[in-house]
Specification:
With 428 residues, this protein is α+β, with helices and mostly antiparallel strands. It has helices spanning 16-23, 26-46, 52-66, 70-75, 77-87, 91-101, 111-135, 140-179, 219-233, 278-281, 314-324, 402-427; strands at 180-182, 198-207, 234-242, 245-253, 256-264, 268-272, 294-299, 305-310, 335-336, 344-347, 366-372, 377-382, 388-392, 396-398. It is 45% helix and 20% strand. It starts with 15 loop residues before the first helix and ends with a helix.
């Protein structure tokens, strides 16, 4: 970072803007980290047996006074990642960085490893605090002290996540605005808006009822006509669902989609099509290939458009219906639990969320399971911060011990009460 070959104005490799996007305000974060380590070292010098309450008071005080510097750094994360990818294509930059990474004092770590350290640190501190709560029995007053510290960090993390989400959302809207093309005959809808956010996007197969083929047809033509009819009746459609708008499009190429229909989100409805009522929607039955996990999407406008759609899995269908119509009816084959008497699982490996409705998990995270589907997906609430979302069951193990589950539920209740107290205190 201080290398003259990288630091403007002396550097010919990085512009001032490149430098800002790549390193942001990391100097401020280093300063705050050193301050925290110095204060913790003073506590350790007073007593080698660390008191959890004292440590948490130090963490809380430093966090409230100085940890706001993490907000712009995490907000900048999307620009940082993109800028690093762009710069790696420059031979001069790559050569300088390789020489720096080969230096013995960096222990073989890559530049990217150093850039993500602030993000790892701010997210791991709440996990460490929570591990203290889970691992040892403490007095009630100390537990309240630790919970208060945990809430301070969680509030800070929530602010960082929200700012980063807003920045990523704005970036995503700009990309979609360049990719989505409207027909000349239809009105163009502006995509970029401060109040608009992408809820879900993806490809679904639209199915149209198959008309009967002519009874009298030469055998040599029958197969060809059947294949053509199947292609016409199974059509890939790309859906972009925003908090206020639905766009239905067809793919033109890898970077372009043509919008064929759009509607306000409040005018759409969706419901599952099961085996008992499939003939109400498709009188001639469904094509033999690629038509599973059906649901019906209705756009209630002047024309009342209806789309019969096929998904790849039960979980995909459920999540699309939830996105189109929150709090819609549940599938009979899924298991739904009440929060006060639900299974609990613990993450045994990290789960990275790829969709807005997924819940990222770190190792040892404990989650209340609210819903299970047959294809291995769970919907749950992460105990340490109350966030909800879908995750793969294969990344977790179920907590069988009833005493431990009860302890986790008590911990969740304490966190909720502390959060309420913290919020009330913040408003006064």
């Amino acid at each position: 970072m201080e290398n003259p070959q990288l630091k403007p104005p002396g550097s010919s490799t990085l512009s001032k803007l490149d430098y800002q996007h790549l390193f942001s305000n990391v100097k401020n974060i280093i300063s705050v980290s050193n301050r925290l380590l110095q204060k913790l070292e003073l506590v350790w010098k007073q007593s080698v047996i660390l008191d959890a309450g004292v440590v948490c008071r130090v963490l809380k005080k430093v966090a409230k006074k100085h940890y706001h510097v993490y907000v712009p750094y995490l907000t900048n994360a999307a620009f940082q990642e993109r800028k690093l990818s762009e710069l790696k294509c420059k031979l001069e930059f790559q050569s300088i960085v390789t020489d720096l990474e080969d230096a013995p004092e960096v222990n073989g770590l890559k530049l990217q490893s150093f850039l993500v350290l602030p993000m790892q640190r701010i997210t791991r501190i709440p996990l460490l605090i929570y591990a203290v709560l889970q691992g040892i029995d403490l007095e009630e007053s100390v537990v309240d002290e630790i919970n208060d510290c945990l809430n301070t960090f969680q509030t800070l993390l929530n602010e960082c996540n929200e700012k980063a989400r807003q920045m990523e959302n704005l970036q995503q809207l700009n990309v979609l605005n360049s990719q989505l093309k409207f027909k000349k005959t239809s009105r163009t809808v502006p995509i970029v808006s401060q109040t608009r956010s992408l809820i879900k996007k993806g490809q679904l197969i639209q199915i149209k009822p198959i008309t009967k083929l002519p009874v009298q047809m030469p055998r040599r033509l029958l197969k060809t006509v059947q294949q053509r009819v199947l292609r016409e009746k199974l059509t890939a459609r790309h859906f972009f669902l925003f908090n206020d708008l639905l766009l239905i499009s067809k793919k033109k190429n890898d970077r372009s989609f043509e919008v064929i229909e759009y509607s306000e989100r409040r005018n759409i409805s969706a419901e599952i099509i099961d085996n008992r009522n499939v003939h109400n929607y498709l009188p001639s039955g469904t094509p033999s290939a690629g038509c599973n996990f059906l649901f019906c999407l209705v756009i209630l406008d002047e024309e009342n458009s209806e789309f019969i759609l096929s998904c790849d899995s039960e979980n995909e269908r459920m999540r699309w219906i939830e996105a189109f119509c929150p709090s819609s009816q549940n599938d009979e084959d899924e298991k739904v639990y009440e929060l006060n008497d639900c299974p609990q699982v613990q993450a045994v490996q990290k789960f990275l969320s790829e969709e807005p409705d997924e819940l990222g998990l770190e190792e040892s995270d404990i989650v209340n399971v609210l819903r299970k589907t047959q294809d291995g997906w769970y919907e749950g609430e992460r105990i340490r911060d109350g966030r909800r979302g879908w995750f793969l069951a294969s990344h977790t193990v179920e907590i069988e011990n009833a005493h431990r589950r009860a302890k986790n539920r008590r911990q969740r209740w304490r966190l909720l009460k502390q959060t309420e107290h913290f919020q009330e205190h913040s408003l006064t």
